[in-house]
Amino acid sequence: MTEASALTDPRLVSVDHRVVRHGRVNSLEEAATLRGVEPSAVIKTMVVRRSEDDYVFVLVPGDRVIDWPKLRDLLGERRLSMPDQDEALAVTGYARGTITPFGSTNAWPVIADQRAADGSVSIGAGAAGVSITIEGSELVETLGAEIADVTKIRD
Known about the structure:
Layout: H1 3-7, E1 17-21, H2 28-35, E2 42-51, E3 54-61, E4 64-66, H3 68-75, H4 85-92, E5 110-113, E6 120-124, E7 130-135, H5 136-143, E8 146-148, E9 151-153
Parallel strand pairs: 2-6, 3-5, 5-8
Antiparallel strand pairs: 1-7, 2-3, 4-9, 6-7
């Protein structure tokens, strides 16, 4: 898939957003600067496997990581895992580093860390160096995301 899949997602038609193209970056800080947001407002989309053929998207602020015990408790699962790059591509249509719920080949449920709903945020748009800047509250509403505390500060 390409950025066109994400950017033509019908859910984006009725929400105010801005597409930012900046090319490849080497760090979270560089991405944040080029996108005009704080590092905590760069939203990473992680795809998490619950079981065979059952996944969720987890929206994680850039300065945080998934808190696995919290996510397992929320989902009522004893075991969660991250798919390898080939599996992630197969179940989302996007390569790792470009995964987004927008335009994904499967409409997996979305869990948004509660911090992703605050202020202006930037989420990937299906290609390296392409992002969507949107109000966090509109992002979670548009995606029908469940909001929960599922992350922790990076160690």
